User: Fold this.
Amino acid sequence: VTSGPLAGLRVLEFSLILSAPYGGIQLSDLGAEVVKVEQPGGDPFRNLGAVVPDYSKAFQSVNRGKRSIVIDLQSPEGRAVVHQMVPSFDVVMINYRPGVPARLSIDYETLSALHPRLVYVDISGFGTSGPMAAQAASDMVAQAYGGSTAADGRLDDDGAPVWMSIAIADIPTGAAAAMGTVAALYHRERTGEGQLVSVSLLRTVMSQLGLSLMREPVSDAIGRDVLKAELAAIRERGGSYGELIAARTTFFAAERLYEAGYLARDGGIVLGALTREQRDACRRVLEIDDDPTDDSGFDDAAAEPKRQVAALKQRLRERIAEHSVDEWLGRFAEEGAPASAVNFPEEISDDSLGTLEMVELISTVVGPTRHVMPTVHNREAPTAIQSPPPELGSATDDVLREIGGLDPDAIAALRASGAVA
Amino acid sequence: VSPTSGPLVGVRVLELSTPLAAAYCGMHLADLGADVIRIEPPGGSAHRQDRALAGGAIKLAQWLDRGKRSSVIDLDQAAGRDALHRLVPNIDVVLTNLPPAGAERWGVDEAPLRALNQRLIYMAIGGFDANTPLADRPVTDGVAQAYGGPMAGNGKLEPDGAPGVPGVRAVELLSGILAATGIGAALVNRERSGCGERVDISLLRIAMSLNYSATVRDPISDGYNRDQLVATRAQIREAGGSYTNLVEAAGAFIAGTFKVYWSGYRTKDGGLVFGALTPNNRNAFRKALGITDDPLDQPDYDPTAPALEEFATALKARVRAQLLEKTRAEWMIIFEAVGAPAALVNLPEDLDDDEQAQLSMRELVHPLNGPQWQVAPLVDMSVTPTAIRGPAPALGEATDEMLEALGGLSAEQIATLRSNSAIE
Assistant:
């Protein structure tokens, strides 16, 4: 028996790779019973960089707490089982490519006709209308198309774009799907109505770039429009991708003085100032008293201010190189300025603070594992990871019996026909 | 602003925020139909004045605060704190990312508010774990990305080899979405049980969650590659190696399939990416490019075999040269024909002219500076439509209305507070 705020609710997840699975672990941690439907062979994420077959760390990280059932949705019997079970679920979450749900008879129209109270959460690449609507997407594709690859601005040794390996399309889209799910469940609690909830990787990327994409003619005239003219001029003369990125980076350089990485004497350090107060604290620590970038009227689109910013950046680099990371961290902490050393994702699990955010799960496949705890902590209806990551189809029989109401003979017949596994 | 649609219609939220996570959360709650009231200090909260946080003060506040109301209450004054407390019985959610010590000083920590409203949902977004001495450290996106791993995992480098801050404030933004999720779940539970809730989110944990597979510890899988990477980095540190050396150590652990088919390329006229994660998608690229000799997806492929490593490097060089032969548009036609997941690399500003992206933009009109376009709500809903409820509010435009309607204060009481500068 689970304890979270969604205890007693059931989610049927048709999911691959990362976005819907990340949404599903949120709902599971919040107490819902999440049944992940996999096609024969399983979610391809099971074998992405896998050392243990069908049990990659990538799969584990976004599927713990769920039950796995294998149903062949190509077979009429498999689809019939899904249709039979759907009324016992509160939520369907799906990230199959556009057109596939309808072909498999697991689209919103079909399932909501069977179960009007259903909350159906659809995750697409590019949304439900427009010239790209039929295209499949991935984190790579959505980040490239949606602008975050260019906003991150990395280039490889050939001058080609580099993926920002923080999965800001897939992961926040999964979170958005979870957010839409609970909002729709709240409406259903109050009215009894189910509905269709739609999110897309493109919309999510754009939302996070909301400030860059916002158009507001008054301030754009002295900011964004100037940048756009620069970019157009570079394209006009046949400039490269790298030149476009360099122009963009220079344009926003004033913002990256105190929210930036530097090299201290013995390693990397990052300043994370987001407010004027925090930037002032950084300036006190670094003994910078002639920085005009926060003065009203400072025009960072003009040439002379750009030179000032470049000179300041160089001074900050030289200043920070004078002391060690630990010395600086102490000084920044005293002034209340946000700063940090840089840790690697493979090592944070063993850091003194990082380890507090981890919990042990004993896996039947690989033994004792450790995972990041639920992202949301509820005190009264506590969130928790319900179980280790499931083996492929490990809950097929149980789910068919408990939720589908099938007897052992019916299950055996389905197995024999290959409709379930 | 008086939302009439959206799943959270009728839910009242008090937002006490500093950039960025809580304000982004409040934006989603407003888009979902909640009545979100920002409580701001005299002069306005930090992001109203902030010119340096990308694009100037006007845009930042008008983006994050769209569809919200604004009240100015001076919580440094006892009279201001009392006025705020008068509202609390009529509030469903308090949303804050103020540091715990500040929240307590201003009377907006959980205890006094809970005493006024047992059904309250109190959402606190923090930095490091609330039970450690570091709970009051200022943790922002940059700190969480650096401390928690995403920044080094991304591996971007400044020209001088310093750590590169990612181009998206991913930790604060994801925290905002997950905070809204936590609030929504608590509202569902409150409908069923009548109980209030305390919900916490820490930026450090969210940063670690963004690492997904890299931070999971599994002794079998780790023994094969992660432990070697950690050992390699330990040697680099011992030898006094640079941050660049530490970042580049990860390169040896990237499979050839990724190097070639999950990668960016230059074309005749700009950037393009391949986004293939599965053998089927990789086969589509092989078909489009006429690659017939690639063994990287064969079942007995050993990613550590030097010969295959060399093959992947050579194949990558071949694909690079091939991509330069045509324009982006020409390649996209070829890749789309075989279902290979490729995409153009757009600059954010390019999307102004992109038909697909513009379907996700909405026009609204601000009384101060006229028409503007913002990215649509994160979620679309068929029965309870989400929407941008209106432009961002002027500072303190709802102070009187709120104190009267929700706090039950008389016109005289409000006038007295105003004359004492406890409200604006």
In short: DSSP finds 18 helices and twelve strands in chain A. The first helix of chain A runs from residue 19 to 29. Chain A has a mean pLDDT of 96.
